[in-house]
Design goal:
The protein is of the alpha+beta class. The protein has one domain: Peptide methionine sulphoxide reductase MsrA (Peptide Methionine Sulfoxide Reductase, Chain A, 2-Layer Sandwich). It has five helices and eight strands; from the N terminus they run βαβαβαβββαββα. The strands form two sheets. A six-stranded mixed β-sheet has the order 7-6-1-3-2-8, with helices on one face. The chain has a two-stranded antiparallel sheet with strand order 4-5. The chain starts with a strand and ends in a 17-residue tail after the last helix.
């Protein structure tokens, strides 16, 4: 069965580049999640006025790539303790988050994060919640690292080849 999840972990180029390397990903596209302003563009999102975060819409085949594996992999490539930044990217649009439109999935995500938090001494800053909206980013952002292999990325894409 195909499922959809929205992952925000700093610059969306790296999140997309990483997850696109995994077996079980059906499709992905980057955009702006939970904006207070309809149809924001990159320039507006970067002002912080929209409240949007750069995010990846990930459609996956659950029988091949489980939600649990997605969450383990996501937390292995981001800094869950960072508030409003990842790597060299600073601003509210780079905050981390996990969003869904499915209440059952939301409960599973929250349970995963609660269990993870019990093993940590620092507080996880990653937002967990329902997706309010998602607007596609401009075409030049889509599959950016595939089109520009030398582009900046705060995520080590080679980690996608590692077992979790």
């Amino acid at each position: 069965m195909q499922q959809t999840i929205y992952l925000a972990g700093g610059c969306f180029w790296g999140i997309q580049g990483y997850f696109d390397l995994l077996k079980g990903v059906v499709s992905s596209q980057v955009g702006y999640a939970n904006s207070k302003i309809p149809s924001p563009n990159y320039t507006l999102v970067c002002t912080g006025q929209t409240g949007a975060t750069e995010a990846l819409e990930l459609i996956f085949e659950e029988s091949i790539l489980s939600l649990d594996e997605i969450l383990k992999r996501f937390f292995s490539i981001i800094d869950p303790f960072a508030l409003n930044y990842q790597g060299n990217d600073f601003g509210t649009q780079y905050r981390s988050g996990i969003f869904t439109q499915d209440l059952t999935m939301l409960k599973e995500i929250q349970s995963f994060v609660d269990t993870l938090q019990k093993t940590l001494t620092q507080q996880i800053q990653t937002e967990i919640g329902m997706l309010e909206n998602f607007y596609l980013a401009e075409s030049y952002h889509q599959k950016y690292l595939a089109k520009n292999p030398q582009g900046y990325c705060h995520i080590d894409l080679s980690k996608a080849l590692e077992e979790i």
